[in-house]
Amino acid sequence: MTQRRITDDLQDLLAVLPPAISAAVRAANHSDQLLEIVIDLGRKPMARFVKGDVELLSNEITREELDHIVKRIGTFDGDNRAGLERTLHRISAIRNRRGAVVGLTLRVGRAVYGTIDIIQDLVESGKNILMLGRPGIGKTTMLREAARILADSKRVVIVDTSNEIGGDGDVPHPAVGRSRRMQVPQPSLQHEVMIEAVENHNPEVIVIDEIGREQEAAAARTIAERGVQLIGTAHGRTLENLLLNPTLSDLVGGIEAVTLSDEEARRRGTQKTVLERRAPPTFDVLVEIQERDHVAVQADVSAAVDALVRSFPLPPEIRYRDENGEIRVEKAPSYPMARNGYGQNPQMGFRRLTQSGGNATIEPPTHPLNMRGASLLRQPAAALEPALAAEPPSNPVGLQPIRVYPYGVARNRLIQSAKRLGVPAVVVNDLSEADALLTLRAYYRGRQQTILDAEMRGMPIFVLRANTNSQIEQLLAEMFNLSFSPNPNKEWSEHSEIAQSAISQVMSGERYVDLAPASSAIRRMQHEMARQAELVSHSYGKEPNRRVRIYRE
Predict the structure, then answer these.
(1) Strand partners, 206
(2) Residue 130 belongs to some domain of the structure
(3) Half-sphere exposure of 172 (CA within 13 A, CB side)
(4) 172 contacts: CB under 8 Å, gap ≥ 6
(5) Domain range enclosing 412
(6) Predicted structure pTM score
(7) Whether residues 465 and 530 fall in one domain
(8) Dihedrals φ, ψ of 7, to 5°?
(9) For residue 359, is pLDDT > 60?
(10) What's the chain's Rg over C-alpha atoms?
(11) Which of 132, 149, 255, 358 is exposed most, by the fewest CB atoms within 10 A?
(12) Does 184 share its domain with 292?
């Protein structure tokens, strides 16, 4: 582990302040926790520390004090940012309509040597890395340290738009090591300088801070396709934020709506319009900086985006530095991926429970699918044996996975039901790979070609009366020889929570929200909730997919 060392050149920043403000900052005696100093005309100066703000003076800032600072710092660029020669401090200006400076934000720039240890293996892997995080969380500090580490063995060029990475002035700050630095004359030209760096200076690594425009996202893709390692930052908190940002979503491949054919939609068990990843991502690895020294890593952005658009987000790898300064890594659970891209966890067990002497005991499950070539029409839920709640054994025997081919059945509901029950049902895309076929009664009676093919193969065919979560869960329970009884109170509670969330969204500005298909009794409850909230609701669709839509008048 690298010994941490911090360089902040704070005395240079305090030297440009009026003496009274400079003395007040020193008197606060928390210089190592200082983030920025805020000075606004006609207001009291404030110092922002990691744990809160401190009022520096009781007097309001005058025009003379503002001018005192402006005369002692560098020239403001097109993005209203300036700096101090050979330091990492950033001074940002607020101007009035006539262009006069009426406010300043003086952010303390620090070179923290050793901060990159937490992701150094990723940085040195040669993969393209994107760092996300809220402003002030330490993205630029980590980026600067990455450039310094890589410059010891590779040709590194920094595209420094606001001189935050290499500091103000023509000579870069020592914190960037042997990296070369290209300054950007205007923020709007950042994408051109990125391309110029690749074409003119033969880099192996390009480092870029704050990718925020569509042209910069396109330039980043061009650089990545030329075989140059790219390490950059962007404002945002999570992968979901980035995908919903139309300007920057291309950095992780972007998403688009795809219209499926009737046959393909029936085979997938989804609606005709679905979301898919548009292109390969520009960045291979995503690092979400959640707190200082605490990050979440998506090591495969392609897989993470594919899983996210299918409503099955992959858990990230968590890395953090403990109280002793040691780096801890919590590996994300690895789920084997079915060919449709959805993850399944075969280690999750669900056992058949019986009651003996008032105590719940656990029996080993019999092998599932002992009816080859059987066709099963589901029985009412009341006919099933009720399940008893009990803790799973400490070392359960895993159920054997069953490959299921759904035909006309909602694939996403099937996956969610398997996850809720904890059974290893793997959804496949090809009938030849399946152990069993799952379909609806209408398709079975219609003698579709897929049904006939399954019968010729001697494959078990399970027939549902309706495409509902309850029916699917009952079927899975029988396939794996489980006792199961739907919990009506839980179902009503879940639908009530969903309806309340939809009401909140509409009252917050959403045009309308469609609820999930539900029974007529639950729909009546949802209509009543909308009426009490003084909103309008109507039911749409045909059974069993009839649903409630909530909207304003």
Answers:
(1) 157, 230
(2) yes
(3) 21
(4) 158, 166, 179, 180, 181
(5) 366-479
(6) 0.58
(7) no
(8) -125, 125
(9) no
(10) 30
(11) 358
(12) yes
